[in-house]
Amino acid sequence: MFLLGALTCSGCAKPAGVMFEPLPTPLSWPGPPDEPRIHYVGQIATSADLKAAKPFGESLRELFAGKAPVMGVINPFAVEVDDQHRLYVADSGGRVVHVFDLDKREYEQLAPTPPSAFITPVGLALADDGRVFVADSTAGVVWVFDAAGSNIDTWGQDELVRPCGMAFDNVGQRLFVADAGAHQIVIFDAQGQPTARLGERGTALGSFNFPTDVTIDHHNRLYVSDSLNCRIQQFGTDLMPRLQIGSRGDMPGYFARPKGIAVDSEDHLYVIDANFEAVQVYSSNGDLLMAFGREGRGPGEFWLPAGICIDATDRLWIADTYNRRVQVFDYRPPAQQANRSDASNEVTP
Fold it and tell me: Is residue 125 part of a domain?
């Protein structure tokens, strides 16, 4: 009788839930009277946040074997989203790369081929051919995975000191690695051979002091988060330094500890500042456009954030490291711009 009742209770399949429940009061930036550009969407902290559907068979299995463990992020440091809507999270505290399949509502992990293992995964980059690059700052290498999640190669042995943020140039088939320990940007070709090094330790334009991240815009310009010089540097397609964005200070337009950087579809540059617990947004000419976020644990608040990526739909994914979550935002252009067919790619957000 008990078994029949239990089977009856578990017999109803559970449909997929709403992954990002809207807040009672929406959050957006900037505030009135300005038109909002950045809109809070939600967060992902565990595999349960995928709100996957539960068919009858799984309900029955859970009845007898117990629920599958919920996997959560511990110290998310870098994030990337591929064209299959899979969210990759480099978790330095958990020593793992989480993979959240946002369409299939499935969770898995990337891991090097045994007996190897991640020590401190802190950087991610994706190639158009499906390869996933994972920078391990303690091991001093970049792990390479294919589109199926298999560990196919290791780059940078005896070449890298402390690799951090990365960006893959799909046009030139090059991987740019911010090597914080060497105070350089190391460039690898498509086969994993180092072909060039940018910079040395210093304060002049083109020099670095613990660079932590890189990104490439739609004009193939390279940006470097030159963290302990408290600035972002822009390099042209010839890899010559062109522009310094920001400097040391505690006001908008200045930096204390810039880390993750990314560009949206209009080449606005987004800069995470771990000390300010905020994101500053700049034009590609270095003009400050806006900022959002503050210290805290609530929606739109941060605690030592580190990484950011922006997907093809202009959705922002931010590694909110000590809040142990990835926060999600949308960038939406101004209404008048969205209605203009001749809108330029350099507009004020």
Answer: yes
Query: Mean pLDDT across the chain, nearest whole number?
Result: 91
Distance CA 301, CA 307 (A): 14
Residue 10 pLDDT level (bands cut at 50, 70, 90): very low
pLDDT in the model for residue 68: 73
Confidence of residue 176 (pLDDT cuts 50, 70, 90): very high
Chain CA centroid to CA 209, Å: 22
> 52: domain CATH number?
2.120.10.30
Is residue 347 in some structural domain?
Answer: no
Supply the pLDDT for residue 64.
55
Q: Is residue 344 part of a domain?
A: no
Structural domain of 320:
2-20+32-338
DSSP sequence for 281-319: EE-TTS-EEEEE-EESSSTTEESS--EEEE-TT-EEEEE
Which residues have C-beta within 8 Å of that of residue 2, sequence separation ≥ 6? Answer: none
Q: 43: part of which helix (H) or strand (E)?
A: strand 38-44
**What is the end-to-end Cα distance of the chain in Å, rounded?**
63
Contact 223, 249 (CB under 8 A): no
Helix (H), strand (E) at residue 166: strand 163-169
